[in-house]
Amino acid sequence: MNLFIIEDSLLIQNRLVRFIEELPDVSIVGVSAEIAGAYDKIVDTHADAMILDIQLSDGNGLGLLKKIKSSIPEVRVVVLTNHSNEANRMQALRAGADSFLDKSTDFEQIPNILQRWQTHGPAH
After folding, report:
1. Which pLDDT score is estimated for 122?
2. How confident is the model at residue 121, as a pLDDT?
């Protein structure tokens, strides 16, 4: 599985990379701290999945999520955010997110989700 990470916190980026490097058959094909240019990078790297923050330095990640899901619907997306209120969760799921996680409480679920996607496909 080719995974692309869009996260503007270097600390979270590094934590994600360390987590994911332990997983067999998951390759991180790109990391971006901003929305600008991320769509083209995701397409160019043939990403199968992405981890996406909502609040990024150059805007809201949900617009990118909608664009990805409308043009490459098979890309699976974990939204990982500090802003995990119900309104954001519903917006993310409507935009096509396959999973919605809170950075502070759900971080540990990421490896399980990625491994499940590799074997069973996304859980909706």
Report:
1. 47
2. 55
Residues whose CB falls within 8 Å of the CB of residue 15, separated by 6 or more in sequence, listed in order: 107
Task: Give which of 83, 70, 26, 71 is closest to 50, Cα–Cα.
Answer: 26
pLDDT tens-digit series, residues 90-112: 999 999 999 999 999 999 999 99
Residue 19: CATH number of its domain: 3.40.50.2300
Q: Which residues contact 82 (CB under 8 A, 6 or more apart)?
A: 55, 102, 103, 104
Specify the pLDDT at position 119.
Answer: 80
As a whole-number percent, the residues of the chain with pLDDT over 70 amount to 97
Separation between Cα atoms, residue 51 and residue 63, nearest integer Å:
14
CA atoms within 13 A on the CB side of 75: 28
The tally of domains found in the chain comes to 1
Report the distance separating Cα 67 and Cα 48, nearest Å. 15
What tokens appear for 124 in the block? 């909706």
In terms of residue numbers, what domain contains 24? 2-120
